[in-house]
Amino acid sequence: MFTVKRYWLFSVLFLSALATVTAQQLPYQNPGLSFEERAKDLISRLTLEEKASLMFDQSPAIPRLGIKKFNWWSEALHGLANNDSVTVFPEPIGMAASFNNDLVYSIFDAVSDETRAKYHNALRNGQENKRFLSLSVWTPNVNIFRDPRWGRGQETYGEDPYLTSLMGVAVVKGLQGPEDAKYRKLLACAKHYAVHSGPEWSRHELNLNNIAPRDLWETYLPAFKSLVKDSDVRQVMCAYQRLDDEPCCSSSRLLQTILREQWGFKYLVVSDCGAVTDFYTSHKVSSDAVHAAAKGTLAGTDVECVWQGYAYEHLPEAVSRGLLSEQEVDKHLMRVLEARFELGEFDEEAQVPWAQIPMSVVNNEEHRQMALDMARQSMTLLQNNNAILPLNKSAKKIAVIGPNADNAPMLWGNYNGKPVRTITILNGIESKLPAGSVVYDKACDLVENKLTQSYFKRAAFNGKTGFKATYWNNPDRSGNPAISVQISDPLKLTTAGQHEFASGVKLEGFSGLYETVFKAPETEEIVFKVGVTGYFELFINNESIAKYNNWRTLPTRIPYNVEKGKTYKIEIRYAQLNNWQANLEFDFGKEVDIDFTVLINKLKGIDTVIFAGGLSTLLEGEEMPVSYPGFKGGDRTDIELPEVQRNCLKALKAAGKKVIFVNCSGSAIALMPETQSCDAILQAWYGGESGGQAVADVLFGDFNPSGKLPITFYKSMKQIPDDFEDYSMKGRTYRFMDDPLFQFGYGLSYTSFSVGKARLSSSKIKKDETLSLTVPVSNTGKRNGTELVQVYIHKTGDVNGPLKTLKGFKKVEIKPGKTTDAVIELPYTAFAFYNENDNIQELTVMPGEYEILYGTSSAQKDLKTIKITVN
């Protein structure tokens, strides 16, 4: 791994290269000048039209000045996204369950190594700088996961501002590299600023005009402030929705008053993709693109991201009409160009130490081990009746069933890359047991109550089974085809891993036509099952019945009625678009009801069943066009486990099986029924490339679980405020409700711990002081184990504030029969809350009595209390 310590080994390259700088260089080309001086000189040489183009997220090259094409939009949520053969770490919500921000730092140091290596390798091989392989990465997501219905909560570090802040700072420092280095390793981005956590379906129109100041300052803003103040994050992304009638990307209050004036942010503001064009297409606060461009720029948005059609393309017109000055454009462009200079992107590779990171770091053994270590530490044991876990490896037969048991893409989460190899839950369990002792069955779908009997092989074209596929190396099926092939099995095509759809077909900019004829065996409803990234249109007898243009592969069900004996010409038109990897999945057939009788018969003689289910990113995610019962646009309308899975678990319980439920999800599920139908419940999140190995290590006792919930698991929908669009924190998260199914900070171990009486270094604290809390923790069980000591604070008499709020934690590893002191430092600022009696738009420390609560979860029964006076 190319660690920061090795950075200085390469710095000599810069010094030697600097010595060769010639006098003929223009000032902006001189690496010996400051980034500010270089940016200022370059701006003086640009036309207004060129200046505007450099504020696009896909900035074109300007050859006359040697400016290369540059893309601001890459993703590194838990590994370099939309790239192949990279290390895929657990989804952030799983990383948060580790409560290990040091490991998070190491992981994102590794991610930045892999990104730099792949970026420079691509340039050396003649590839242009394109979306998703650049030095600007739009992560971390430090929004607060306030409502379990939000599909993107999986991208966050949970519901707590303090934990989110620590994790976010670790991410940024790992990505950007040491602050005293000349060049940034990457540019990280704090998103989505601010007050954003769903719903997905209304984010382009939503207006949040009743946010209480206390919720704003205590819940929604602390993580952003921490990333600005404590990690020097180089980018902040403004969100889609409006706050107090103003879109976030045109909010002077957010982008100027708070971000720059109060917090001192000096760097770049980027828009969420399409957020500026939303001014006139969705929010209706601007009349057209010209006014939107001026509005966004004047408020402080420096770079505009779009799907198509830049509003900022109209900045020259806005200047000519007097809506803003060219000097205003220059001010924003300074931040844009300084950031590019800071990456070393204008300098020769030999001068930039990060450019020397070799491709050998990508998915190396050290990174693979980190992915496994984090997956293990994320595993959160919620229930273990009669100590059924860990399982005995000598079991003659064990069943592994469920829709997530052998599901590799589920483990990858969202905003993901594709790993070299993935260990599924089934793979992991099979590695623990003798060959032939595992019985596998998918058992049911994630959400659908029916199974599809495929008719793919009943169709034929020119007497050959399946579909005829014709491909063109252009996006509009024009001219001579590149190749035609016959496909006899359901379509499952992808360019991921540099795989061609067929021999000689390009990886980008291609199109395809798939044709067949189907003769209906019965008069019935059939369904077409589709998953597509790109352009897709389905024709039946020359009539278009479905059309999609998706930027991610999502499952789609298209029903269609057929008549017995009638023939149907089926035609699919496909094209790869934009920079997205091409994917096409297609099958069709008859749906039949699920009967668990067959499954139960298959499991005769087997006592223990591991059911791997839950959700996947096919169901929860960002603004998804496909909806199922209980799901809408990537969010959920029901937080229970999908009905088909609940029914399967009930059938297993009724058959007398011992059921271990491995729940894979990026959000909290109301598991009340499952606490009755299952003997053990392991929350496994989306565990990354080694997630299945981590699950197996925990189930069979090779790793003692230590994960703790970073979000509240509610009993039912009744415990959540009805209005998803209401951003009041009342009744949400552990800080404002205290009767959930599983508390924030909760997680079981295979051993037991007891917490003794804590000792405080002082009973009082004043400004600039730090308290030391020493908590004795004993391992009272029979195995080595790790406990997380958590410290919460509550201001006595503060009836409107949180019940408690996390302010510190410490992981301690303890041997059986031993006691260890967990020492947790509490600075004076740990006692800062919002003062409702003053009109101060900030958190302040108020004098008075406070309660320090410490223990092993946020549940009141797991906490002890010490009182302290703040002077």
From TrEMBL:
SUPFAM superfamilies: (Trans)glycosidases, Beta-D-glucan exohydrolase, C-terminal domain. Residues 1-23 form the signal peptide. Residues 462-604 form the PA14 domain. Its EC number is 3.2.1.37. InterPro entries: BXL, Fn3-like, GH, Glyco_hydro_3_C, Glyco_hydro_3_C_sf, Glyco_hydro_3_N, Glyco_hydro_3_N_sf, Ig-like_fold. Pfam families: Fn3-like, Glyco_hydro_3, Glyco_hydro_3_C, PA14. GO terms for molecular function: xylan 1,4-beta-xylosidase activity. Keywords: Glycosidase, Hydrolase, Signal. It is an enzyme of class 3 (hydrolase). The keyword Magnesium does not apply. PANTHER family: BETA-D-XYLOSIDASE 5-RELATED, SUGAR HYDROLASE-RELATED. Belongs to the glycosyl hydrolase 3 family. This is Xylan 1,4-beta-xylosidase. The gene is xyl3A.
